[in-house]
Each structure stands twice: as structure tokens, then as C-alpha cells.
Amino acid sequence: MSRIPQTARAKTPTPTPLKSRAVPSPVPARARTKSATGRSTPSKSAVKDDSPPAVPTLSVKEAIALKRAEAKKAQERALNASLNDLSSLEDAIPSISGAVVEEEDALGRWSVRETIERGRSSGVVNLTARSLPCIPSALFEIHLGITPDPLKSVPNEPKLPPSDTAPARHGGKRDNPVWFEARDLTTLKVWSNDIAEIQHEISMFGSLKVLDLRKNQITSLPKTFGDLTRLTTLDLSHNSLTSLPSNIFTFPELSVLNISHNHFTSLPCNAPFVSSSGKKQNSSSGGFFGPVIARSSIPLPKLVSLDASHNKIAAEAIDPEIPTALVKINLSFNPLGNSAAFMKNLSRLPNLQELRMEQADIGDESFLEDINSSSKPSFPRLRILDLGETRVTTDTIKAAVQNFQPQREISLDLTTENPPEGVILVLVGKKVVREAWEIEAERKAKARAAKFAQEEGIEWGNSPRRPVNKSSGSSSGVVEKEAWEIEAEQGLLTEGGKRRAKAQAAAAAAGTSGSTSASTAKRPVSKAEIVKEAWEIEAEQGLLTEGGRRRARAAALAAEAKEKEKAALSTSSPAPSLANSQYYTRATNALALPASTPPSKAISHGRAFSFNPSSSAFTGSPSPNDFAVPLPSAPLAEIAAQPFALTLRVLTLNNRRADRSFTLPASYGSALLPNLEELDLEGCNFADNVSVARIHSSPEGSSPNRSSEPLVPLLASLFPSLRILNLSYNTLTSACLTTDTLSALILEAPHRKGLKQLILRGNKLTELDGFQGLAEMFKGNRDVPGWKLDELDLRDNDIGRLPAELGMLPLDVFLVDGNA
């Protein structure tokens, strides 16, 4: 709220008009209020999000200007040093008087005065990297009509050259914008300058919302600084501040506060609300005749991001009443010390998601105290806890996290992506950033090692890298061996050694080892026992010829089929066929149903083909379980009834064409498979619409209700966690891929995670109007909330033209070869 009276505004000096130049304005395009055609530029759509607003990154021009300004400062310092050496010569240093002539900017930016004058129309002034000793007095004179008091640090402020005049639109000259074009100053950026002191008249910019003062030499702020109550973003980083005006903590709209890289020793958030006697007092501003400035009654009620890293703050010097709306807190590189009480105060924040304390000089004593002392849950939304390079140990922090979030999963792997929902990323020790595929590869390797250990009679211990041998009887006090050490002792490092071990175990199970019992068949082979070569075992079993090996394989398959039939008949309640290990992999939560395409005529006769699914359709040896798999291409009703439905992550339904339809339960919730992340429907011959059969579970024998529904919207509604969708080699057309349909499938929403990979290879797409509509959402260098897609595959279609707008899509992989 501005304090300027109307009479002061009426006497505002009018600067000369600007000369028209074909040079881009330093004001960002997002901050301009009018386009070239005179129409207002559409602003971003407001999206409700708990995350703090993103800090704007530097443009290429700003980065170049910053580097050049730093180089110019270094040259000036060197020149001043050389001139000081000639102080004994009177004529060595020429006297400089009068106005300073400003040099032409190398990047074509407007001069300082022109930038300030143009800010009257836009409300934005950007004076970044201008080597300014202070905020120019011209800013106050042009925008407020006042002359600020001289500063002690800059007694003789350099005068700015007058701006060029420019002809008016209808002839003649005009100075200031007309009254309906003038705007109050809302954004002021003066970072990367030589400012050491701020004028106390800064408080008169009552409409200021964004103030960027980073990378200067400021040592203190005026008391009137606390009157800028409309600020939403304040950046004071990389200065020499030791304290803040207490009224800053009463700002009602401030959402981002950055005070990193200073010399603060405390955070007195509650200071303006407590009197010297310790009693709570009402925070108000303005006298009887002065303007009333709205202040909050609690510390910073809308602050969502606080960066106080690289200071000298101790945990005891932080007030217990922390701003309750905080989402991100960064206290890295501070001597926090014992933070048990501080951590208990942080645990009450309902929206806290990121807590960073890297190299903060804290130890296990900060997490040994029970945080769950209150009835409310502690850290209810915490997702990232950074304790890198501190004295906190892994076991202590894992126990503490399990104490206040027992239902959440803990991850210690730092990746380039944010942790998924339900997972807390805890960083302890030295940080090692890994890609997501590296962690997935390690997880699969552990699963394979565990499976092999189970087959060889080795118990996989609590440590995922250290198996424990059953026969060794190792306890927690015994040194556990790695998997490769056990394999080396058992002679299993080579393929031949593995075959010999398996042959010996099979012979022992069949009774060929005489008095050796079946329980010792899986025991590792000792050095004293005679180990036969592979060719000796093969000779005894008649496997030296190709015919003998084929007969042995056929006999083994026949024996296996008979054993499975006996087991199925003897079991009163057999396990569901879809949960069989032949289809469902528990380690990866993946289900792959067999294809229903006919086998090749070179292997078996075509007339012998049954339209029942057959996982071995290409080998000619069907499995007994295959005939229990439902016929529809996507039997989702049967899959949803399985015990693994809620944890299923990968579903593969390739080449299932016997019955091109979906089966769904007659009634289901908002999502059928809530955690499904990857769906593969390649080669199912699906069209734009698919037949859907809704099965009733109550009366047996009742016919299901069938209908025809659009395929893509159906997939979007059934699988909210879908990240990868493969619809290759179907018969989809461009008509089903409208902009609304693609938005519902791809964009992240409150009930969707957002698609990252979409594969539409080998369909019947001819146009890309739907994707063109998505691309137009990025016009004007805008960000689209919820966009996660980084790979799009449109190969082998009938596309005849690629719209130029597709170049605006932020994709990492875009495949279009094989089109017209």
C-alpha cells in the first residue's frame, strides 16, 4: 500500500519520451501486460499446488550480462589499484566532474533510466548486473515523484544521463505514459550489483510483490523495510546481513524467503509478536493519521519455502513458533547442534515435504527422543530428509523415520527423480546420485541372486547383498559371505560347475547316491567327494547325441506335466491359475498372460490350433495351466480378483486376439488396478472402440452386460498410476486421439500420476491434430502443469505431415520414422 499523497503524485516529473529501437526489452515476456497487437497476454491458469513457486532461472542474456559485469568489475579494481600507485603525481589521476556518460550496453539492453521509465507501463524494473552502488534515485523520482535522502555509503551518487526522446503516435512528443497505462511497481530486480545500503524510502513502494537483492554487499536493512507487506518473494541471499527487521515476519503474503549465504545467527520468527516483558502483543502499524498497513497475527502465514543455508544459525536460536505453511526448509551448512526440540517443532508442520540439513553439525542425539508424543501424526507429508555428511547414522535415522511414519517405505538411494508417493527419501553420508535405471537394475540383480540362493539351498539373509548358508548356522556374530564367495566355494562360478551340481542333486533325489538321503542332495559338494566331469554324466544319461538330448527333454516335459496334473487333482482348493509363477512374477509384481496367436505351420499343423491361449504356441508344447486362462484380450475382471491386484505394477497382454474385448466387474471403485505403472497391449488388433463385458458376481450363469466404449479414455480411467502405455500394432486412428482425450491420459491430475512414455507404433494414424492441440498449450514459453511425457513413438503409421507446433513439446525422445 503506497503512502504517496495525491498531491505528490500530481507533481511527478515527466521524463522525455523514449526513442523507438528494435532492441528487445529486458523485461521478461511473462511480465508484459500488452502484446504487439494491443491485447492482453493470457496469464497462466491457476493450479492449486502445495509445492512452492519455482524460482525463475536465468535467461541466456542475463547470464551473459552477469559474467560481463563481473569481468568489468575485476578490470576496474585492477585499474584503481594501478592508479593508487601513482598517488604522488598530481597529474596522474584526472579529475572527473559533471554527469556520468553511460556506455552503450553490449547486449543491447536499455539504459538504466530508460529501463526505469519503461517500468511505469509494465510495473517491472530489472537492473541486474549494472554495477550500481545503490538503487538509483531516478527510480524514486520517476515512480514516486520524490527525491530520496542521500546515503552514507554513497554520498555522491553518479548521475544518470537523460533518456532519448521519441515521437508520439499522433505527432509531437509525450513524456510519461498516460494515466490509464501507468502501473505501480510490482517487481524490482537489482541483484548482482555493488549495493551496500538501501534507502528508507523503499517502503513507499506499497504494491511491490517481488524484490530480488541477492549478490550485493548489503549489511543492514532500514526499519521501514518491514512496511512492504505485499511482498510474495524476497531474495536476500549472498549478502552480509546479520539480522532482519522484525516486522518482516509479519508479512501476510510472503511465500518465498531466501536468506542463504549471510551471517545470521538466529531466526526470531516470533519477535514482533512478543513484547519485552514476554507477553503476546498485537502487531499493528501506522499512527492515528498514518496509513494502516495490514499485518498478520502469526509469523508468515503463507511462507512455503525458506532457505537459510550457509549461515551461523543454531537450533536453540530458532523460535518454536515456525511458520505453519512451510513446504520446503533448507538449513544446510549451519551449526545447528542438538536439534531434538527443534525436530519436535518441525514434526507438527502439516505441509512439510522437504527438510534439508546437509553438513548441519547434528548427530544421533537429535533423533533419539520420541517425536510421536502428541496425538497428531508427525511429519505427515515428508518426502525428502537430507542429512548428508552429518553425524547421524543410518540405523538411527531409519528407526526414527519408522517411529513417526511406520506405514511409509524408506529409500536411501538418491536419484535424479523425486521419490514416488508413499516413499521417504533419506540421505545419509556422502551423496551419490544415481539414475533410476541403475537402482532398478540393482534391484533385479538382488532378486535373481535371491532366487538362485533359494534353488541352491541357501537362505537369503536380512542383508540383500549377503546370503547366509543354512548348513553353516551363521548368526549375527558370524561374518556373512557374499553370493559370489559361496558360489566359488561350491564350484558354481562356471556353467559346467552349475550343471554338475544340478546333475548330482537330481541323481541324489532319484536314489542313485545309495545311502545318501534326499535332504543332503542339496548340500554343497565337499572337496573330498569325487566330482564327475560333464561328459561322464552325459554319457551315463545317454545325452551324448542330439537325439538322446531331445528324448530326455521330451521325457522331462512329460513327467513335469504328469506331476502338475496330479497336484491339481489332489489339491481340494487349487491356487488361481493367473497367480501361477508361470505368469505372475512376485519379485517385480509383473503379470504376463500367454498370447493367443496360432503357432507357425513349420512347427505344428495349423488345423490343430485351439483358440484357447497358449503360452507355448510357438514351441508346440502347451502347458496345462494355459487352458484356464480367460479368452478375452484383457480379462481385467479376473485379474482384479487375484490377491496381487492391488500391488500389480506391470501387465503384459501381447498378441491376445482370440476375443478382442475387455472384461470388467459390474461395480468397481475409482480405479481397477490402482498401482499399475506399465501396460503392454501390443498386437491385440484393438480399434478406436472396444467391446466391454461387465460381469456380475452374484448370480451364476447370468450373461454379462456388453457395450462398446472408447479405448483410450477407458484406459485412462482404469489405471490412474499408469506411466508407460504400449499400444503398438493395433488399428487405432487419429479420430480417437483428440486433445481432450490425450490430456486426460497424459497430464498429471489429483487422481493421476501422469504418463511418461506413449508408444503408438504401427497403427493407422494419419493426422496429429490432438498432439498439435497439446503443443499449443506451451505457446509463449509457458509451463503446462502436470506434463510428465518424455517419450513419444509414432513410427510406422500413415502420417503425411508433422505440424510445426510439435516442436514446442518438451520431449526427450520423439520417433516418427516409417511414415509417409
From TrEMBL:
Residues 1-55, 151-175, 458-481, 504-525 are annotated as: Disordered. Keywords: Leucine-rich repeat, Repeat. It holds the Pfam family LRR_8. Residues 504-523 have a biased composition (Low complexity). InterPro entries: Leu-rich_rpt, Leu-rich_rpt_typical-subtyp, LRR_dom_sf. The keyword Repeat applies. Residues 34-44 have a biased composition (Polar residues). The keyword Repeat applies. This is L domain-like protein. It comes from Lentinula lateritia.
